[in-house]
Amino acid sequence: MRELKIAVVGGGAAGMLASIVAARNGAEVLVLEQLPRVGKKLLATGNGRCNLTNINMNIRSFHGSNVNFAISALKKFDQRSAMDFFEDLGIHCVVEGEGKVFPASGQASSVLDVLRFEMERLGVKEICDARVESVSYGKKGFKINVKDRDSMWVDKVILTTGGKANPSLGANGSGYELAKAFGHKIIEPFPSLVKLKLDAPFLKSLSGAKIDGEAAIEVDGKVLRKESGEILFTDYGLSGPPVMQLSRIAGEHLRMGKRVNIALDLFPDMSFEELEDLLERRTYLREDKPFDFSFVGLINKRFINVLLKEAGISDLHMPCRYVTEDDMKAIANKMKRWVMSVSGTQSWSEAQVTAGGVDVSHINPETMESKIAPGLYFAGEIIDIDGDCGGFNLQWAWSSGYIAGLSASSK
Ligand SMILES: Cc1cc2nc3c(=O)[nH]c(=O)nc-3n(C[C@H](O)[C@H](O)[C@H](O)COP(=O)(O)OP(=O)(O)OC[C@H]3O[C@@H](n4cnc5c(N)ncnc54)[C@H](O)[C@@H]3O)c2cc1C
C-alpha cells in the first residue's frame, strides 16, 4: 500500500528523475506539467543529441552564490550513477571530446522516451496542461491549485519548475513565485550560456565570420576566465562555445555595473614574438604586395581590413616595403589581444541556462528539503546553481532530482 502522495511540479529533467526515484521508493507520485507534454526542453538539449552528463565532473564547473551547496548531491548521485541509471533504462552512453556524454542513439528523444517509459511502468501519473498557480500548506498537507482544474491535496511537493531560460521550452520563472509564497528568497536570475553583445563599429561587416582562437573575459582590466575554440561574429556581438562559456562571468559582472571586456587572441599557440616574426617574413616576402593582401592565406579575409583599421593602419594598400616596425607591432598586438567592450548578454529567449534562483541558504543540501517549509523540496535549475556547457546542467538536474525524490519519499 502506498503511503505518501507526492506532487512533482514541473515535468522537466529534474522532475522526471525525482518522480522515478520517489515511485521506486514506494510513493504515489503525480507530475504536474503546464505544457501539453513533459520533457520539451530535454528534446532541445545538446543540439537534439542530449549531452546528458560529463565524465570530468568538478565543482569548479558549477556556479552560484554558495556553490558548495551542490557538492553533496553531485557526490551522492554522480556522473557514474547517472550513466548507470540511464544504461539500466536502455541508454548506451558514449563519451565524446572534453568528457561529454551522449546517448549512442544520438537522439535526445531516446532519453525522454526511456524516462517516460519508466515513469509509466512505475505508475507515475503525468498530468499535462496543468499549470500550478499556487501551493500552500493546510491541515491535509499541501494544497495545490492548478489552472482550470480542481485543487488537490498531497503530502509532499517537489518544485522542479526550472528557471527562466528559453521560455518557449516551458520554464518561465513561475516557480519562483511558488517558492516565495513559503518565504524563500530568490537570488535575482540572469541569463547564462548565452551570446554576448558588443559595442563595436565593425560587427555588421563581420557578421557570420568565424575564427578559431582564445577569448578572455576581463573585468576592470583583470582576466577572470579564458576559453578557446570557434568564435562566431554576429551582427550584435559574439557567439560560439567559448563565448557561451564565458557569458556567465560577463553577465554577473555587468549586473554589478563593472566594465567588462572580451579579449581575443587569434594565435593562441604563438607568442607575440613568434607572431611578429611570422608577419615580418610574410610582409617582406614580396615587397611590392599591398599590405592588406599580405594577410591573405593567413587569416580569414573578412577580418583583414577590420584588424588593420583597429590597429591604426591608415593606408591598408600601401606596398609592403613601406610598412614600418611600429605598424608590424601594432597589427601583431591586435591579433594577440583584440579587446572589445561587452555591452550585455542576449535575452532569456536565447539563454540555455538560468544563473540565480532559489537561495540555497534555506534548502538542506543533504535532502533538498526546504528549511522553512518541511515537506517542500527543490531540484534542478530553479535552485541558485548553474553549470558550464558540457553536460553539467543536466547532471545537476539528475543529482538534485535524485536526492529530492529519495528524501521526499523516505518515511
Ligand atoms: C537549447 C538548450 C540546450 C541545452 N543543452 C544542454 C545539454 O546538452 N546538456 C546540459 O547539461 N544542459 C543543457 N541545457 C540545460 C538543461 O536543459 C537544463 O538545465 C535542464 O533541463 C533543467 O532541468 P529542470 O528540470 O530543472 O528544468 P526544465 O527542464 O526547464 O523543466 C521545468 C519544467 O517545469 C514546467 N513548469 C514551469 N512552471 C510550471 C508551473 N507553474 N506548473 C507546471 N509546470 C511548470 C516547465 O514547463 C518545464 O517543463 C540546455 C538548455 C537549452 C535551453
Description of the structure:
The protein is elongated, with a radius of gyration of 25 Å. The protein is of the alpha+beta class. The strands form six sheets. Strands 13-16-15-14-17-18 form a six-stranded antiparallel β-barrel. The chain has a five-stranded parallel β-sheet with strand order 7-2-1-11-20, with helices on both faces. It has a three-stranded antiparallel β-sheet with strand order 3-6-5. It is built from twelve helices and 21 strands. It folds into two domains: 240 residues, 3-Layer(bba) Sandwich (FAD/NAD(P)-binding domain); 151 residues, no CATH class. The model has no long low-confidence stretch (mean pLDDT 96). The site of flavin-adenine dinucleotide has 39 residues, from helix 1, helix 2, helix 6 and helix 12. Flavin-adenine dinucleotide binds next to helix 1, helix 2, helix 6 and helix 12. This is Flavoprotein, HI0933 family. It comes from Lutispora thermophila DSM 19022.
